[in-house]
Amino acid sequence: MQKRLYKDTVRACYIANFFQAIGMVIPIVFAPLKQLYGLTYMQLGSLIFVNFVTQVISDIAFSKPVDKYGFRPFIILSSFLSAGGLCLFALTPLIFKGNEYAGFLIAIILFASASGLMELLLSPIIDAVPIEEKDKAKAMSSLHSLFAWGQIFVITISTLFIYIAGIRYWYGIVLFWSFAPLLNIFTFSKAPLRQKLHESQVMKIKELLFNSTFIMLVIAIISGGASEVTMSQWSSVFFERAVQLPKIVGDLFGMCTFAFMLGLGRSLYGIFGHKIEIGKIMIISSAAAIAGYVMVAVSSNSITALVGCGMTGLCVSLLWPGTIVLASKKLPFAGASMFALLSAAGDIGASIGSSVTGFIADFSERIFLQTTIQSLGLNAEQFGLKMALLTASIFPIGSLIINLKLQKKKREQEAMLATRKTL
Questions:
Q1: Is 352:336 a contact under the CB 8 Å cutoff?
Q2: Among the ranges 86-90, 253-257, 339-343, which has the highest mean pLDDT value?
Q3: 273 Cβ contact partners less than 8 Å away, ≥ 6 residues apart
Q4: Can you give the pTM of this predicted structure?
Q5: Which CATH architecture has domain 2-422?
Q6: Is 367 exposed, middle or buried, given 0-12, 13-18 or 19+ CB atoms closer than 10 A?
Q7: Domain ranges of the chain
Q8: 341 contacts 59 by C-beta, under 8 angstroms
């Protein structure tokens, strides 16, 4: 009976996370923004950085109010903030003519506040649904897989629009997507929303911050967030400028392949995950993601680079949601604050990954001698972007190290329990 009652709740979360992917329209218009308004790679990277820093602030600032006042009012607030931010982003060339970068920053802050709120809300809403643990793990994985399928949808529609309409009309597709968040108002208006724990039962933030398992989970999701978002955000401009593929080809066969494999990995875990230990999958995935990053960065063949991008999407697919599943199991008395802090940590990783990539791209382009670059058969911009993605392989390396430590701690705890039972 409860499963049927909360079916609308789960469906509303799925729809909301599917349309969370509208944020992917921002990196798709990076090349037009650079060409039309003279933005540098550092400025483009800083837009991503501000986006995720704002999400972090939003995650933390709203965590206690959500525990106190419930989910519904904040879902409504996030819908209006998201729509307003995208609308302002599209209209920035008119409103902030001559100072477009400032307008883009303000718009990103509004949109990112909404994204942080939604990120904070959806996982605990699913976690609070009164269903069996295996069904809950499946629902959580499906929730995150729908973000990847949403990415494919948004990337395809946005890329085709810019290809047909031309880069000068990039703002049209951003304005179009600004209406999507308003759908959440209707889907969540009647869906039952349950608080898993009363405010008095929730672990205090101080307890979480000094919990060694939680600290390791935070580091894991920072690494996972950086591993996922860096390739996701930079693959569009990388394939267009470094590999020199036509934008429509790079976006549809680069970004879309990444998103497809990201969604596929999460969907497969949703189906078969109860049969496989998540900790072992995350170790294998982190190791394979390192190879994917290196393959994309060093390849001189566009097909190999595209295959590496898709491979990376599959490999990083569980690094973020897998950490949340582990946290839910290991820390059952943590409330929205835990999800907020984990989401904030993931966003910190995403912001660090994207901004470091932009910095390395500009730095490598400036520093390395032209003669050295020419000897590699690359121009300065190509060399900078390739060096940037090669450097970004440090993020899945970090994920591998921390997941190995988490697995070691799990084995030690299991051995300790086994010893106690024999005494």
A1: no
A2: 86-90
A3: 137, 138, 141
A4: 0.74
A5: Up-down Bundle (1.20)
A6: exposed
A7: 2-422
A8: yes
